[in-house]
Amino acid sequence: QVQLVESGGGLVQPGGSLRLSCAASGITFNNYVMSWYRQAPGKERELVARIATTGHVTNYADFAKGRFTISRDNAKKTVYLQMNSLKPEDAAVYYCNAVLEAGWTTYDYWGQGTQVTVSS
Asked: What is the rounded average pLDDT of the residues 75-97?
């Protein structure tokens, strides 16, 4: 059974920091491209950051560049999202995503999400 379990969300003041974690089980973690997405109320889910299997290649949404850092520890089967200089508009549910494209088949898994609230 595949599980992606996010943690680390919570309430933070503007300008503060949070570190999200996503622990994976039931998959060969180092074969999966890992991503963080977020969804605010009334908005579509959007990509925040993505990291390749080895961790050497990362991509960020424009709003995340310079403030957020995605990383992974393949030995711990965990992906992280360090978020600094948080703004009220960063408030959303943050989701972990794991994708493996194997030939004609795509394996795509999601976590349950963790709430991030940015407010004074």
From this structure: 98
